[in-house]
Structure formats: C-alpha cells, structure tokens
Amino acid sequence: MVEATETRMGPAKAVELGNAVAIASGKGGVGKTWLSITLCHALARTGRKALLFDGDLGLANVDIQLGLAPRRDLGGVLAGRIRLHEAVSAYREGGFDIVAGRSGTGSLANLPAERLAGLAAELAQLGPAYDHVILDLGAGVERTVRQLATRARTCLVMTTDEPTAMTDAYAFIKLMRLQKPEADLRVVVNLAASEHEGERTYATLRKACESFLGVVPPLAGIVRHDARVKDSIRHQAPLLVRHPNTEAAADIEALARRLLETP
Ligand SMILES: Nc1ncnc2c1ncn2[C@@H]1O[C@H](COP(=O)(O)OP(=O)(O)O)[C@@H](O)[C@H]1O
Ligand SMILES: [Mg+2]
Predict the structure, then answer these.
(1) Is residue 4 in some structural domain?
(2) Coiled coil located at which positions (predicted)?
(3) Which of 131, 207, 246, 254, CA to CA, is 20 to 30 A from 47?
(4) Which residues of 124-138 are buried (b: 16+ CB within 10 A; e: fewer)?
C-alpha cells in the first residue's frame, strides 16, 4: 500500500478515489447523511453498483436513519480489528452496500493522519468493485475531512439558505481550492423552500466565490424541503421507497441523473 509517505523523491502521490463522490458541508444538520443515503439509493435504482461510506462517525448516522444494525462497522476498522472490506454490509432494501460508521467513535477530523491515509488506501482498493462510492464526510472543514474530499472525483458541497451554512460552505470551498485547485467542487442547496429560493441561495454563494476566490463552483442541484423526508427517517425507511413521488425524491433523482451525465 503506497500512501502519502515521504520518499527521497518527495511526497508520494496520494491515492485517488476515482469513482467517489464526497458529500461535505462544513456545517452539520444540512442533510448530508440523508442526501448521501438517498443519492446512493437513486444511483442503485438506475442499476449501478453503489457503496455508501459513512464517515459521519460522531453523529446520528446512516444505520440509524435506515434502522440497520450492522454486525461490523468502521469502528472495528479504525480499532484495527477488521479490514475495511469486512465492514461492508449489504442493504438489501436499497440495493446498495454500506460501510456503517458508529456513533461515539469520534469524527474523521480526529483521526491521526496515518490512520486516515490507511483508510483511504483501503477505500481505494475497495472502490473499483463499485460503479459509485458515496462518502458522507460529516461536518467540519478540518484538514483530515478535506483529505478524503480531495481524493474523490467530485465533491458536493452542501448548503442551505442559512447564513451559517453558506459561510461554512464558502469556507470549505476556499480551503479545498487552496489544497487542490483543480478539485471538482459542485454546490447542492438543500432544504430549499422552492426551486427559485434554492437558486437565490446558490447565487449568493456563487457571488462570494466569484468575488473573493475567483472561482464559480457549478450548481449540482437543488433539493426542496419536504416534510416526508422527516417522516421516512422517523420510520427508518428510505424516501424513495416510502414516498417515491415527492419533490425531494424527484430532486435527488435529478441530481443523480446529472452526476451520471457529467462525470
Ligand atoms: N430535503 C429535506 N427536507 C426535509 N427535511 C430534510 C431534508 N434534508 C434533510 N432533512 C432533515 O434534516 C435533518 C438533518 O439531516 P442529516 O442528514 O442528519 O444532516 P447532516 O448529516 O448534515 O448533519 C434530518 O432530520 C432530516 O430529516
Ligand atoms: Mg450526518
């Protein structure tokens, strides 16, 4: 496993996660975990083989939203008890695979750099078995969180119309640009009151990025606020099964289509 180790030639090239889409935001509570699940599900429903990696270790995570009790999870991997591929469980109802996180294991942000590098290397080995790997990065703009994001082929930066969410999304974009200028960053506005409101939120963020960073991260999609999202989480059932004909479901399916059209 060659991984970001210093050599006489200088730092080794970090492993790339070529088919990974990282979901990031800075701020918590903007819907990263829910969107990661639902996007993975939407991709699986188009016949793609998809893996959801729950890196949102500290908080209410994927297994809780879906009501799963995986026998093995990332906690065991981080403790060195099992390998990453052994932590994969099949989520039959959704037709995709999951590496569950574990509440209380701390966050990716607190992982020592070499642990994270090892995890990324294992993920890079696991990734090619899938068409898509969705990485729920959890909240934060720390270097460790960005380390995984820079390896993904695309990073969806999520925001809502709240100024704190926009500020954190901006901060994440700024730091990512410094770390990897060529990073493919795209914006997702979640919890939008309407498509129009979502466009306004994007325009505000876009303007700040354009004025102060000289970049215009494209809009990947707008996902409208939908009361049935909460209902499906309460019932620990995926939205696309419980409420397939809703605005939020249509928005995620459109987001998935766009990701497939513009790899
Ligand atoms: N489009 C949406 N419409 C309605 N509620 C949403 C939507 N997206 C997320 N939520 C709600 O927001 C809450 C936080 O979502 P979560 O995915 O846990 O956020 P994060 O992972 O960013 O902390 C959840 O309770 C979820 O029900
Ligand atoms: Mg989360």
Answers:
(1) no
(2) none
(3) 246
(4) bebbeebbbbbbbbb
Closest CA to 205 of 183, 187, 184, 223: 187
**Tally of domains within the chain:** 1
| Residues whose CB falls within 8 Å of the CB of residue 117, separated by 6 or more in sequence, listed in order | 3, 4, 14, 147
Nearest CA to ligand 1 atom 9: 31
Which ligand lies nearest the alpha carbon of 165? 1
Helices (H), 163-242: 163-179, 195-213, 227-234, 239-242
What global pTM score does this model have? 0.92
- For residue 5, being part of any structural domain is answered with no
CA of 191 to the centre of ligand 1 (A): 8
Q: Which two tokens stand for residue 130?
A: 């899938």
Q: Which atom of ligand 1 is nearest to the CA of 138?
A: 21
248 in contact with ligand 1, CB cutoff 6 A: yes
Q: Is residue 6 part of a domain?
A: no
DSSP 10: E
Q: Is 229 in the pocket of ligand 1 (CB under 6 A)?
A: yes
Provide the residue-wise pLDDT of the chain in tens; the chain has 263 residues: 334 443 333 344 567 888 999 999 988 889 999 999 999 999 999 999 999 999 877 665 888 888 888 888 888 888 888 999 999 999 999 999 999 887 565 666 677 888 888 888 999 999 999 999 999 988 777 777 788 899 999 999 999 999 999 999 999 999 999 999 999 999 999 999 999 999 999 999 999 999 999 999 999 999 999 999 999 999 999 999 999 999 999 999 999 999 999 87
- For ligand 1, atom 27, name the residue with the nearest CA: 230
**Ligand 1 proximity of 137 Cβ (cutoff 6 Å):** no
Domain assignment of residue 8, yes or no: no
